[in-house]
Amino acid sequence: MARTPLDLDDLVEHWTLLKDEQGLVSGKRGATRLGFAVVLKFYTQYGRFPRGRFELPGEAVEFVARQVQVPAAELDAYEWSGRTVEYHRAQIRGHLGFRECSVSDADKLTAWLAEHVACKERRPGQVRVEPLARCRTECIEPPPTPGRCDRIVGAALRVAEESLTARISARITAESIERIVALVAGGDQEDDVEPGDAGTGEGEDGPPVLGKIKEAPGNVSLETMLTEIDKLLAVRAIGLPPGLFTDVAPKVVAGWRARAAVESPSHLRTHPLPLRVTLVAALLHEREREITDTLVELLISTVHRIGARAEKKVTEQLVNAFKKVSGKENILFKLAEASIGEPEGTVREVVYPAVSGGEQTLRELVHEFKTRGPVYRRTVQTTLKASYTNHYRRGLIRLLDVLEFRSSNHMHQPVIEALALVARYAAAGNTTYYPLGETVPVHKAMGGDWAEVVHRTDKRGRRRVVRMVYEVVAFQALRDQLKCKEIWVVGADKWRNPDEDLPQDFAERREENYRELRKPLDAAVFVDELREQVTTELTLLNDRMPKLSWLDIAERKSGAIRLTPAEVQPEPRNLRRIKNEVQRRWGVVPLIDMLKEAVLRTGCLNAVTSVSGGGSLSAEVLAERLLLVIYAYGTNTGIKAVASGGHGHTEDELRYVRRRYLSAEAARAVAVNIANATFAARSTDLWGQGSTAVASDSTHVRAYDQNLFTEWHSRYGGRGVLIYWHVEKKSLAIHSQLINCTASEVAAMVEGAMRHGTTMDVEANYTDSHGQSEIGFGITRLLNFDLLPRIKRINKVKLYRPVAGEPDAYPQLTPALTRPIRWELIAQQYDQMIKYATAIRTRTASTEAILRRFTRNASHPTYAAMLEVGRAQKTIFVARYLRLRDLQREIEEGLNVMESSNGANSVIAYGKGGEIASNRRDEQEMFVLCLRILQSALVYVNTLMLQDVLGEPEWADLLTPADRRGLTPLFWSHVRPYGEVKLDMGSRLDLAASTVPGPRVADGRATRPTVETA
Fold this sequence. Notes:
The chain contains 41 helices and 16 strands. The chain is of the alpha/beta class. Strand 5 (551-553) and strand 6 form a beta hairpin.
């Protein structure tokens, strides 16, 4: 894996010989002197001896060589085995007080790892980091060979697993264990079925219960709702005790669940009973929460669909029945003239002939009046009630039996009470009204257009509540409050109590949380800083307005602000020649070879391990199959098509690797490793210093729609999903996420900027117009990165005043100014806003879950304060944007990088016409991750190719400032993504070495580079 070159600070801190160390070196000469010195400093830094010259960074060797006054080349003569090196090691151990690791030490280390590490972390690569630190603390030299260290880690994982599974299984009753065993025993039909691929049938021909529980939900329909309710009841029937996994790390439970999901029942039955019971219990525990979330989403979507379809149905009926009558004023004049002229005549003889079209025109005129206003709304409400009563009611009423709704806000208790009333009278037959003595909870959804429909006067003149209409209104109120989490669901995950989304230890760690967000503890200091920035930016804009030729602010009906687009930048003239030179040198390169080269140079597949913890495949075979699977998903051609290529691996073998090894977590880690390797390989002379800005936007992709996730998108005119990308300024994708079409793109933007996982430090985020929301400006201010959106309809934008009572403070900006910021509200809610920002930073909940509370339907007081912060920050940004031409260009250039990235994706993911041919959420997510891996591999290899070409003076001298501005490693004119897939791990691209020997990895061990030169 690529290593970041050591800078002078690193060298001084870790590779400087101290006074006592110089005494040890003083009696040695030549290669022995230099070799002893670098081995000593390596040991003091890593707590172990290097395994050879390849582990020593070249910069460090040069730095130490200058201190001991021995040429660095002398190190090649140092012997890494034999009596001399053993004597040196003994000297170093004695000087530092270390001893070799004995069998007893290894046993103690295993026990410590099992008790303190392996019970919380199940990934061998992560566990392997801890023994080194522990050995250093105990002054023990780590095991000398990787094999022995791996055996210690493996033993610790086994001991911890046995201890955990015994503890978990002991909490489950004997009856529940019997049901779990029976569940696994009855799943024989699943052995040859992919998880989630089972059908939806029931009875003898349907899938076993365990297979049904694993299934993904279908599309929004009554049948899907009833099926998911049956799944939830089947999970609850097992009888798992509450709080079963309370004291177990969530990542451990997730690992058990993933293992149970991919293993067939026959494999599960081979495990010892405690492990088998724990795996299935973890699967059931997680699925219960997921199914509960699914039912909540089905409720929200179903209630919306009932209303939307009623609107559509009534509209179509009215359009078909109604032909708009024109010239109403002329008709009225003619009627009046005819009536006055013959007041004694009949209507049929006088009025009808006076109008063109006669009686039919007048009938259409009457119909037009009746179909407007309240009559239309009542028709929609009647149609909605009929749709609910005749079809959807059966499923929604059953939901009330299996889901428990609660609210922490007393304002919404009437809705909870209304649902209890609906459930109590669910089986009341054809009763039109609630009984006279029944207390009917009143909530605000019963007002407005529904008031006349909910209440009706009976035959005796009494005002009564219509039961079916009341049920419709109750479910609509429930939907509205669920969406903003004012009402939540017991046992859910996404839709859980919003108080659980917040860090529970916030008060105890208050100072630390403020420090991590770089925010003052005093709300007054925060308010003063923000107000001062607003004042400064408005003052600068006001003072410089006369000199800004591109900006005009004046009173206009179309909006106060008029901004002239920036002039066109000079066109790069030599980039085409450079790309042609790349193709001349390396020819047309198959995309699979670009991926292979990136994998071999970065070692990004090293961390991929089996989901089940085992695995018998050799590293070479596993790497080849992983490459093919990633290519199959990323190009959207599919495993079956790729399996027919010339590589010797069958479709079943590739599917096995996909199921057992390539999890979403593993694919994400591969993409991150390639991104980090790209950052490390970049030449600062060519690409400049590392960027801290990213561009983000969503791309619509068509997808199968027999699932909950795929939705209709009005702008794109079709069903599909959105992929939200974060791409840094040099065209490298650092994050991708799959979201549905109605998801918050602001939440997706924040999620990617905060949780991309690469070594990049994101300080600014360019977005399209979706990023201009005030809540987005507010949360990004609290999270310490700049939101830089493209402003839509900038002529209508308003700037907020920093203080009240100064109407003449900014005379040049007056037409665009509005009310002052409410600073007192920000100060009141400051601590709560920091608490929500901390929840996003510490990942106690997803960003979307946090921001779901901050919607216009919510009455949350922190929402109003966050809006005020956002308005202040938006004012700062807009004032700066209007004043600085360079900022306008910078945002446009960033968004152009995003557009280029979308173009590359359409070329790479050419299979199946670009449509995701799966209804499974995990398969859709895997497509997105593998597409990102392929694009990152393309950027990585292109970066090396461009550096090879432009490293030659005759090519570098061609670059003009415009060329450097437009230079990007994201181009594909020399890449062939199509055709038969041929994989030859022995053939390599002729590229210069991108790194010096001796990469360092996270556990402190250095690994030999796969190749130094190709």
